[in-house]
Amino acid sequence: MSTTTSPRTTAAEASAMLHALDLAGRGVRGANPLVGAVLLSADGTVLGEGHHRGAGTPHAEPAALADARRRGTDPRGATMVVTLEPCNHTGRTGPCSEALVEAGVARVVYAADDVNGAAAGGARRLREAGVDCVGGLEAARAGHLNRRWTASVVAGRPFVTLKSAQSLDGRVAARDSSSQWITGAEARADGHRIRALADAVLVGTGTVLADDPRLTARSGAALPDTALSDAGNAAAASPERRPGLRVVLGRTPVPDDALVRGEGFLHLDTRDVHEALGDLHARGVRHVLVEGGPRIASAFLRAGVVDELFSYVAPLILGDGAPAFPDLGVGTLADAVRWVPDDAGGPAVRQFGPDVRLHLGPP
Questions:
Q1: Which pTM value belongs to this model?
Q2: Residues 22-34, buried b or exposed e (16+ Cβ, 10 A)?
Q3: What's the pLDDT at 215?
Q4: Dihedral sign, CA of 308, 177, 270, 279?
């Protein structure tokens, strides 16, 4: 991969930006963008590096500063090369712009402007503090990396991850409705890790009535690593963890004794996907994991709001039963809903025991 410098950037900064983009791709997409950062000395030596590993963990810039300090180097007077404009707000972590000012960083070179209105303005804050700040280096590549996250921010809705588990012939249940378990223990454990990263997990009322799920994230330290970041594994390290919200979508009442009830339970009495996402966004949800059942999955696909798809495929054939994605309205091959491999955070295709996981995104 090649790059060119601009009159305001150096060859060392251009090279560092390419490395920062590679670091960014190792992160976990969802409530936050993928961001990587590299700290350079005045002579272009790498002092530290880091990337954002998931919601609630340090952003890329503080991670790079911490790495530099672990190496015994002083960030004062250094240059921070980062793939996204440093944020300027306090959320689950403090503003990166302030962290850079306090660390004494003299120069910041970033790729893409932050489109999130709540977090934008970091470049302005840095310049006001006397930090030399240059934007636009590899902006197109950085923008492409976060195109789905950016689309959800611009649309004012949560980032949507859809997860499915199905047989080789695309069935989520046999003819007699039995479905536990199509995939094996390793694949289910990986699914729990993905669940632990979301602000909210959403299913339909049909799934609640059929399976009575808890919608908690259960895992164990001995389980195999996933293509997700270390933060994803850490987030699911406890035996059972309830995501921020456990959401049930649909008009049918949720039974009083349903296991999903309790603190963090929310019933959205609607079948309108856009209405549901608007409600969740207003409640502060920025990443929702849709787990089913099939009709809910299809509703989100028809609405065109799915930003990424994790599909677990088991090597078994049922021949009949419930399809994974019914009623999509596809009448001919030309109208098929097409997806592309997504290798952000790791390989797009991974094996867990006998099962295969596909990580996909819309074209």
A1: 0.79
A2: ebbbbbbbbbbbb
A3: 87
A4: negative
Annotated active-site residue 138? The verdict is: no
Residues of the chain with pLDDT > 70: what percent? Answer: 90
Parallel, antiparallel or unpaired: strands 107-112 and 132-135 = parallel
User: Residue type at 284?
Assistant: G
Contacts of 12 (CB under 8 A, 6+ apart): 40, 44
Residue (of 192, 255, 250, 261) closest to 220 by Cα position: 192
pLDDT in the model for residue 325: 92
Q: Return the structure tokens found at 124.
A: 């302005």
Phi, psi values for residue 177, rounded to 5°? 80, 0
Both tokens assigned to 41: 């000395």
Q: Strand locations in the chain, DSSP E? A: 36-40, 46-51, 79-84, 107-112, 132-135, 159-166, 171-173, 200-204, 245-249, 265-268, 287-292, 308-313, 322-323, 340-341, 349-352, 355-361
Give the C-alpha separation, 277 to 194, whole Å: 19
Tokens of 96: 């990166």
Highest-pLDDT range among 59-63, 209-213, 216-220: 59-63
Whole-angstrom distance, CA of residue 340 vs CA of residue 84: 24
Active-site residue identified among 49, 61, 138, 186: 61
The enclosing H or E element of 79 equals strand 79-84
Distances in Å between the alpha carbon of 92 and those of 32, 58, 89, 219?
A: 11, 9, 10, 24
237 pLDDT tier (thresholds 50, 70, 90): very low
Q: What is the pLDDT of residues 13-41, one digit of tens each?
A: 999 999 999 999 888 777 788 999 999 99
Six-digit token pair at 55? 């919601």
From the CB of residue 263, how many other CB atoms can be counted at a distance below 10 Å? 7
Identify the residue whose tokens are 């996909």.
360
114 touches 87 (CB < 8 A): yes
* Residue whose C-alpha is closest to residue 359's, from 287, 313, 298, 311: 311
Do 39 and 68 contact (CB within 8 A), yes or no? yes
What SS3 state is found at 134? strand
